[in-house]
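From: lab user (bench 3)
To: helpdesk
Subject: output format question, protein + magnesium ion

Hello, I'm new to running complex predictions and I'm not sure whether the block I got back is the full result or only part of it. Here's what I submitted:
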Amino acid sequence: MAVEAHKESLDFQAEVRQLLHLMIHSLYSNKEIFLRELISNGSDAADKLRFEALSDDALFEGDAELAIDVGFDKQARTITVRDNGIGMGRQEVLDNLGTIAKSGTREFFAALTGDQARDTQLIGQFGVGFYSSFIVADRVTVRTRRAGMGPEHGVVWESDGEGSFTVETVRREARGTEVVLHLREGEDEFLDGHRLSGIVRKYSDHISLPVRMAKEGEDADAEPETVNQAAALWQRNKAEISDEEYAGLYKHVAHDFEDPLAWVHSHVEGKQEYISLFYVPARAPFDLYDRERRHGIKLYVRRVFIADDAEHLMPQYLRFVRGIVDSNDLPLNVSREMLQHNRLIDAIRAGSVKKVLGLLEGIAKEEPEKYAKIWTEFGRVLKEGPAEDHANRARIAGLLRFASTHADTEEQTVALADYVARMKEGQKKIYFVTAESFLAAKHSPHLEVFRDKGIEVLLLSDRVDEWLVAHLEEFDGKSLASVTRGELDLSELAGGVERKKEKVSRKEKEVLRRLRTVLEDKVKDVRATDRLRSSPACLVVDENDMNANLERILKSLGQQVGGSQPILEVNAKHALVAGLADIDDETRFADWAHLLFEQALLAEGGQLDDPAGFVRRLNDLLLTLAKPATATAAQDPPAD
Ligand code: ADP
Ligand code: MG
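Helpdesk reply: Thanks, we reran it on our side. This is the complete output you should expect:
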């Protein structure tokens, strides 16, 4: 048989080296987690064996009693963690213990900040568990054999965690994996049964597999005792589970160091039976926007782990949720493909979404401060909801928070219900403005008339907002309306009788006509408006055209967009506009017209086609102001 028995020495991937260095230097205050990580790997290995054995019972090799044994040797100064799970073949060892095979490695390194607390948490999320052995060990030996392969397929891996490792094929009777840590100088505190069993209970109580240790003072042959609870936590009665236990399971599932912010645990009975336990993390994972990386919900069937899957159990807009679903009705041999078109899975997903939305609604109502935290971390993801999940659109809308002219802070704190409660008598619509930044939105000239009348406007400046308002047409029977779109009609509004639209004078009409001629290539139309107060002009989009902010976003994403022309609305009463009537020189008039258009474009965050031309026109104008003697009356600066 062509077994490569030779011992080979290989270099770690550069990322692994970097990671090892980082871990050893940033996790020293949290050293004990190495044990949690090794036990977690043993537990995963047992899950994998159980799952593969569903279709091939022989993999158990007559021993289906899965467990993890933790031991230590004071003389040799070693700690050993052994499992009888799936084990690894030589290639698997090379793949898993020499590289970081995960996607998102680049994002991970990019996300590192140098701030120890934050980076420590990132390492946890990244789930680089095995390498944490080197926090306490200066040599690690792994002996393993894959279930179902002959004893001649054993593998020994060894490394000092510096730059390289060795791999050798050996004979090994025992199935599964044994990790031996040769402790660093000064780490003897871990050569203590109490200390070790304490750590096991602290982190691994929720693991459904027994974690065993030899009883203190008894010889090695004595029956070991189970130190953790070893019962799938989610199977237990809610009332009997402590917050610490819930948090412990979360950390295992989510690879997180921090406690979760909230959770919801349900035993569902009815058409089908399942248990779900969902958590909301305290912080967004670094790869929240990496759509490739989709995990976080573990699917079990009658306590057998089936798959780490998020795609089929949670929609995209809830992808920050972590947790467990344990079904009583799915077949044990359910395959990934089967998850795709499965009535039971679809029903579980629908139920799960309701649970999570209910959890969020409860927090929003009872604990607004906590909800504010959730919103800061995950709000932009939740905003994808109305587009993705039509059935729950109204409920999701209730969870949304925005900045608005009422609160005047960048913080997104205004719920649509708050807005509706503050609507003026006669106001039928929920008004919003979208812009590239909060300040651009807040200072948009379009808001002038709304400020004047005391009408609240939502200030939207997240990229996803365009997507959101395209799909969220209404809330509580009130339609959402952009203040930059179409003709503004506030006439129905309270304050009694709206003053009749001021008539546009002949003189003003003539100015509009001349502006239209000059700006023919730039705008669809030029018209008078009464939405402005202190600004001379603004741009609006025609009822059915694409909004300029959305157009810019699409362009920045490399998409071809049609480029529909805006409408220039001018404040005919503004001194700058009124003065135009007196300019007879057509070249001068054209300069003014362009400046008017260009400043309106700049005010809403747009980009000038000809910035140098703008600067020249502006400077010419400034020059006329610097030499008042030569200026004509038309260029009088506006009064304010
Ligand atoms: P993670 O557990 O998040 O995948 P780790 O660094 O803890 O990351 O482990 C890397 C990989 O090494 C695991 O995905 C698994 O394939 C393999 N591995 C580690 N420990 C064991 C073990 N005890 N039994 C089988 N495979 C293991
Ligand atoms: Mg692991």
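A quick orientation on your result: Residues 494-499 have pLDDT under 50 and may be disordered. Let us know if anything else is unclear.
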